[in-house]
Design a protein that fits this description.
This protein is α+β, with helices and mostly antiparallel strands. 43% of the residues lie in helices and 30% in strands.
Length: 97
């Protein structure tokens, strides 16, 4: 299944929600799983992004739906990066020789 890296930044509203309800993170995780997307790793980070998530999704359509659903609430902004397994990447490069 394709993997994606989600780089998330909370909005002012999102920071308020998280401060008042820290368990909200787990509720959103459950929503994501119900969309058919598996969370492989999840990190809170310092710097320009508040969270880094590594997920598996069945398709670009599924990950797009997740992004629209979550960002439409006004509490988070998400940058989505498709992640290519390094062995697949090397094979692709070799095949083009």
């Amino acid at each position: 299944m394709p993997r994606y890296i989600l780089l998330s930044t909370l909005t002012t509203e999102g920071r308020k929600t998280l401060k008042e309800k820290p368990y909200r993170i787990r509720e959103v995780d459950e929503e994501i799983e119900k969309m058919g997307i598996k969370i492989l790793k999840q990190y809170a980070t310092l710097g320009p992004f508040d969270f880094v998530n590594i997920v598996e999704a069945p398709s670009n359509d599924a990950i797009s739906k997740l992004s629209i659903e979550l960002t439409s609430r006004g509490t988070i902004q998400i940058t989505t990066l498709p992640a290519i397994d390094i062995d697949s990447f090397v094979k692709c490069l070799k095949d083009n020789d």
